[in-house]
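Homework-ish question, so no full write-ups if that breaks the rules, but can someone show me the predicted structure for this set?
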Amino acid sequence: MKFGIIGAGRIGKIHGANVAARPDSAVVYVADADPAAAAALAKATGAKVAEIDAILAAKDVEAVAICSPTDTHADLIERAARAKKAIFCEKPIDLDVARVRACLEVVKQTGATLAVGFHRRFDPNFASLRKRVAEGAIGAIEIVSITSRDPSPPPVSYIARSGGLFRDMMIHDFDMARFVLGEEPVAVSAMGSALVDKAIAEAGDIDTAVVIMETGSGKAAQISNSRRATYGHDQRVEAHGDKGMVHAGNVHETTVELAGAQGYTRDKARNFFLERYDAAYRNELDAFIGAVKAGSKPYPDGEDGLKALLLADAAYRSWKTGQRVAVG
Amino acid sequence: MKFGIIGAGRIGKIHGANVAARPDSAVVYVADADPAAAAALAKATGAKVAEIDAILAAKDVEAVAICSPTDTHADLIERAARAKKAIFCEKPIDLDVARVRACLEVVKQTGATLAVGFHRRFDPNFASLRKRVAEGAIGAIEIVSITSRDPSPPPVSYIARSGGLFRDMMIHDFDMARFVLGEEPVAVSAMGSALVDKAIAEAGDIDTAVVIMETGSGKAAQISNSRRATYGHDQRVEAHGDKGMVHAGNVHETTVELAGAQGYTRDKARNFFLERYDAAYRNELDAFIGAVKAGSKPYPDGEDGLKALLLADAAYRSWKTGQRVAVG
Amino acid sequence: MKFGIIGAGRIGKIHGANVAARPDSAVVYVADADPAAAAALAKATGAKVAEIDAILAAKDVEAVAICSPTDTHADLIERAARAKKAIFCEKPIDLDVARVRACLEVVKQTGATLAVGFHRRFDPNFASLRKRVAEGAIGAIEIVSITSRDPSPPPVSYIARSGGLFRDMMIHDFDMARFVLGEEPVAVSAMGSALVDKAIAEAGDIDTAVVIMETGSGKAAQISNSRRATYGHDQRVEAHGDKGMVHAGNVHETTVELAGAQGYTRDKARNFFLERYDAAYRNELDAFIGAVKAGSKPYPDGEDGLKALLLADAAYRSWKTGQRVAVG
Amino acid sequence: MKFGIIGAGRIGKIHGANVAARPDSAVVYVADADPAAAAALAKATGAKVAEIDAILAAKDVEAVAICSPTDTHADLIERAARAKKAIFCEKPIDLDVARVRACLEVVKQTGATLAVGFHRRFDPNFASLRKRVAEGAIGAIEIVSITSRDPSPPPVSYIARSGGLFRDMMIHDFDMARFVLGEEPVAVSAMGSALVDKAIAEAGDIDTAVVIMETGSGKAAQISNSRRATYGHDQRVEAHGDKGMVHAGNVHETTVELAGAQGYTRDKARNFFLERYDAAYRNELDAFIGAVKAGSKPYPDGEDGLKALLLADAAYRSWKTGQRVAVG
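A: Not a homework solution, just the prediction itself:
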């Protein structure tokens, strides 16, 4: 399958390398507003630099990976949908629900294939947890608990344009909660504060938050987020059901443990998200290519993107108003 | 130190045995509405059966352990306070905040010594976690997460009189949150449902709940509770701060792990709370006796009992109203 | 069951306290060459001080616990056997195989009941491991691996009289190997050196040793010993069979784990053997009393004591000669 | 760096793919006695099929990776050395010590660069363990313990030509022991038996073995091997020193743990050695290429290959004779 990669930044490089490494897929074109970035990725993947229009017009391009800034996603999805390309788009589709709905309407009308990049679903640990839940290993779900802490906050300049913690960071956890719960949350309560960096508060955002949600049948989910973790990228999911519990823990740097007068010490969790989730990014693309080849619906899709955003919006309003908020 | 034990049920037996096992303390009298229960505990501890009045009047009784039903606690505390006995009372002081306040007023006026039985503070694991937090091992607290699941629900008849999950079960976790946070929560949001037993819903209660709280400075706490756990008594506390994280895990039956075609399997967590918390009950009484002997204030005290109850009441109102509730 | 305790040192105090704590047993007499030690233990257990002869002659003494120095064990066992007392004797019976055989002959002729204090068999973790092996959880045994490291060496003055590392320390591991293997080792190879303290070498002993053994059917066992461990008392057993593996790990001080920039740190293993093995000492005496009451053979018995000593002797000769040595 | 790959079997494919995946290296030729195998690997790596002579004569080939059957290694090393190629050779150089010495003499005379494929040194876990030992984290080494169990035995036809368990399987552990000990073992005692498959005994070999070794200064090492493990590929190393202990544990399939009425169950260890050691194979080649580029000596080298073989031979003789055997 031949890809055009739109956006040659950090995440574009990941997807480009993963496409190039498969024997049955190739990057043929790379576009980026920064010519040097486009050229570098094109060289690394054996592709050519091209304008977005040219990529979308190219007959030999079957799929595009949209890795450009967030505010370009919805527009590019619509253009690619009309150009009959299979679309893999980094999350989010847009920070605005109305814009997302309009975009998904175009996707629907054009019959386009769209996958949204919630890569954590493809992490081998979380995928295994979800598989066990689906197989009934813990029975009927009762409570899902998600802990998600980044090693350190992004620049405040990024935060100011990010849509805020709920839409930028916790969106992954909202998607994970939906993925594991198997039922839609209908109400959200959120609390948050800026404990890591006061500049984040000045930018109108928070860096520390806890959220609870419930579904129509009374299942519950908890999420805790922080923009700080000294011991690595903390990414854990736990699900409780009437037959038991399943937990996916952190991935540590090595299996080594040192014991001495100070106690027993093992390594930090993997710190850098591209290393932590290297298999997830690879598997995500494999799943997209597999679905497109098979003519089946890739997953997670635009609706998943929308629903996670609706949860983020509800959490944002709950944090702002101090009230429990109904979803959607 | 010579004790009168009031209430010879399950928890009275624990405290009676712990008093009797110390070389410097003794049970001298036991009272219980059930003469057979009183006689059995008296025999086991080398004490005599007596009426409550007689115990409170006895010159050689320095301390009483109140282990009778909840609705007798406040009255007994007041009587023991007026009788100048040091008082160790099982939680809660009362299910009604006004009654607790009135009782504590009597304690204050009489200058009585009162400790309330939040035994989990004395569990070696949780005590060690708290000590490290206090020593600054994780820096300034950001988020405290508490998971607390009982192996199975008590009889519905008990639940109907219990004050409900928040006052009966989660009260321990509210106390633990205060213990670890080091700052009072000012707002509570709660969600809950009856997933374990529909009869619990019919009794007006829930068996599954999640709560978030925040303090004035923006610290957060999460609690999850269930009346069901198939893998033992699940009792975990985790605290995050700006320098790191500290976690107190479950106590497993043994350290044995079996590996085979099914994977690696280790034992369930200790299932029965009296075994899980055997050291906590012992240490709790040691601390009480130590404080009384030293003439210092025992801990946790009546104010701790009141504050945990205020959190439970706030959670109850949040669950009922669907709104975030200010504490107190 | 009424006990006379012979020897009021560290281990005598443990057994005395455990006898006294049971509702159905009591210490009635304590003997020790040091009158103050005898008096202290007698006071703590509600017993009287007595001479050994008087204890053995006392009609009301049903059992004796021999906790005196090693070189008195065999003689005391014989005297107690002739006095028709049930005998619990600390390991070893004697450091000399011929003396042990003679002693066991007296035990046999008198029909006396004798248990030898290999307390580790009664540790809940090792007992559980053994139970699973016996139940077939790992299938037919292939290899047993034992790691046993003391926190620090005893005084050189003790080592000089101890019979050496194999008879004094590794004897517990030889017994554990027999306990788990379920088949007698027939050959032993040993290597050892003094790495902890050169004074130990000067006393003719070693402080670090590794041993391999094999049984007639080709099962194997490994033991490693050291008189030094900075991270607590290291006591682990692992058994491999054709269906899997079972491992009993160390008992840590708490379940707390601290994560920070240094990694994840958990507590040291329990350091002091009396704390590490508190349940083992209690269970060991329970088993002895239970067996005597039931009229059944207590375990481990004199033969177990002899067989462990034969393994220690074989290891000693292997170390000295540099050759593999047949057992017995 | 341009490579010729000699041998296109399982391990040749691994090294070929790793060479091809690096931006600065390439496979240019592949040779194999089986033309189809050679063609397949050539296609996968973008190389051409060639005869060995042609590869060695080719001007553009800077390095060869020898991945052919064991009995061809020494001869190919000599030819490649004379052809001035940098040589990466799979272990062992030969099963016969005299042949290895002769081969290494040629390597010495030609000044050739030779690395031997003890890939486990490059496993991130074992490499980290070794690094900590080298940095003094556990102080002066006392005991090294290695557990190494394959999921299941190779075909008996392979075993018959393999040189036996000590030279074929435990050779990796002898190298690991040397790697960690930092001092040469001078004596070996071995025990072994055929517990997995009687046909292995009939082929004159064993499938279960335990070995102890000591160095001149009294450090000790233990190795246990089995050709069977139901719970995955069991690969653990533990090192004890005067300041503490360091342990490298197994790599499990995921971090997921399931808790229920059966206890807590986590995944098996990774079962297939090519997955278990994927990073090790990659890192091994990176180190070889890095050394050749830098003009430094690659590691482990021919002497390491020889010394591991000498330990295997000593273990073999110890097993056969029942005596401790001096090395070399």
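Now go work out the reasoning yourself. Hint: Residues 302-321 of chain C form the longest helix (20 residues).
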